[in-house]
Design goal:
Order of helices and strands: EHHHEEHEE
Helix content: 25-40%
CATH architecture: 2-Layer Sandwich
Strand content: 25-35%
Structural class: alpha+beta
Strand order of the largest sheet: 2-3-1-4-5
């Protein structure tokens, strides 16, 4: 584990990390999360019967838009020029779960983990928003980084 937090100066003030001296490298990050739904929501989503429209299509666009806006939402995140962002969904009707998986790629001086996590979070929140008229008891869970490649700290793969 890293020992020093670099988002604080010597006086303990929050700061944006200076990446100006770092080299530009290829970086990717993937994240996953799940929303647990009731049978009625699962059927409405998979059969495209939600009154607000194509739930997974809208959630995909929302997740991509969110990845591009991460630095506006997370105070110390650097704005990144995202080269690719994908959001995929896996429906599991037996367990009444919809999983969102995001992958974000950049050529930058800093990592893209926050963008992948933000993309998944907003995609799942969009599913909630579009289906809450059917059932408000949906549960968003298990949002985490699956992998990241590139950069000084090397590659990471969730066990």
């Amino acid at each position: 584990m890293a020992g020093k937090f670099n988002h604080f100066d010597q006086a303990g003030n929050a700061v944006m990390v200076d990446v100006s001296g770092k080299a530009v490298t290829s970086r990717t990050a993937s994240a996953i999360g799940t929303i647990r739904v009731c049978r009625e929501v699962m059927d409405a989503v998979t059969q495209q019967r939600v009154k607000k429209g194509d739930v997974l299509g809208v959630a995909r666009v929302a997740g991509i838009m969110a990845a591009k806006q991460t630095s506006s939402l997370i105070p110390m995140c650097h704005p990144l020029c995202i080269r690719k962002c994908s959001i995929d969904f896996e429906t599991d009707p037996d367990n009444l779960e919809i999983r969102a998986v995001s992958t974000v790629k950049v050529e930058e001086k800093t990592g893209v983990e926050m963008e992948a996590l933000t993309a998944v979070s907003v995609a799942l929140l969009t599913i909630y928003d579009m289906c809450k008229a059917i059932d408000k008891r949906m549960e968003i869970t298990g949002i985490h980084l699956v992998s990241k490649t590139g950069g000084k700290s090397g590659d990471f793969y969730y066990d």
